[in-house]
Design brief:
The chain is α/β, with parallel strands linked by helices. Helix content is 32%, strand content 26%. It has two domains: 133 residues, NAD(P)-binding Rossmann-like Domain (Rossmann fold), CATH 3.40.50.720; 106 residues, 2-Layer Sandwich (Dihydrodipicolinate Reductase, domain 2). It is elongated and about 60 Å long.
């Protein structure tokens, strides 16, 4: 049995993770921790993998504390920066236990992970690419971690294909063209009734390809979360891993 603790256990995502872990036949819920609780309660003595779903302002501190305690961590909180990822890598390099692991996922939905991969494959064949991400109004970060990850993957694919900047003759822009991420325009929508959605628009003269991934309920993230827990528990992924595609046969 994989012993799993959940950080952010009373939040929307955290409580869903608690239910998924409890229902999994190969896992046992070890500890649940939320804001105001002592994170030090989670130790290797009772936890194989901790799942962290909190908020961007708290996530880095939580992950560094868990690494220092000798616990492997699956992170679902988004809003990570290159500086934050670097600090996690440095912490793992000095971790108390050999082969410690941290996994960070911009998105756990299989549909979103596949759309991200398909977008990178297609981007080299289109002269224009833009990204629209749509979420519920309680999401605290924008653009979403998924959209940022997609934008970087698209940009890297375009560079590998030797493509230049995308055509854009805009002369006046009060912010309506979205945030430019690695040369890719990313637009964030926050709207009541939405959960988590992303569109990647790819265009050539006379044609358009639209890739869209929709997660209508938080339950759509749970297969990915449990997959990540199992992979880290297997001890085959030491160090920092980013992106669920690392665990899929793509």
């Amino acid at each position: 049995m994989i012993r799993v603790s959940v950080v952010g256990a009373r939040g929307r995502m955290g409580s869903t993770v608690v239910g998924a872990v409890t229902a999994a036949e190969d896992m046992r819920l070890a500890k649940t921790v939320d804001s105001g609780d002592d994170l030090g309660l989670i130790t290797p003595a009772d936890t194989d993998v901790a799942v962290e779903f909190t908020v961007p302002s708290a996530s880095l501190h939580n992950v560094l504390a868990l690494v220092a305690a000798g616990v492997d961590v699956v992170v679902g909180t988004t809003g990570w920066t290159e500086d934050g990822l670097g600090r996690v890598r440095d912490a793992l390099a000095h971790a108390p236990r050999k082969g410690q692991s941290v996994f960070i996922a911009p998105n756990f939905a299989l549909s979103a992970v596949l759309a991200d991969r398909f977008a990178a494959q297609a981007a080299r064949y289109f002269e224009s690419v833009e990204i629209i991400e749509l979420h519920h109004p309680d999401k605290v970060d924008a653009p979403s971690g998924t959209a940022l990850h997609t934008a970087h993957a698209v940009a890297q694919a375009r560079r590998s294909a030797g493509l230049g900047p995308m055509p854009d003759g805009t002369q006046t822009d009060g912010g309506s063209r979205g945030q430019v991420v690695d040369g890719v325009h990313v637009h964030a929508v926050r709207l009541s009734g939405l959960n988590a959605h992303e569109e990647v628009l790819l265009g050539n003269p006379g044609e358009q390809l639209v890739l869209r991934a929709d997660s209508f309920d938080r339950s759509s993230f749970m297969p990915g979360v449990l997959l990540a827990v199992r992979r880290l528990a297997s001890e085959d992924f030491p160090g920092l891993t980013v992106g669920l595609d690392s665990f899929l046969d793509l």
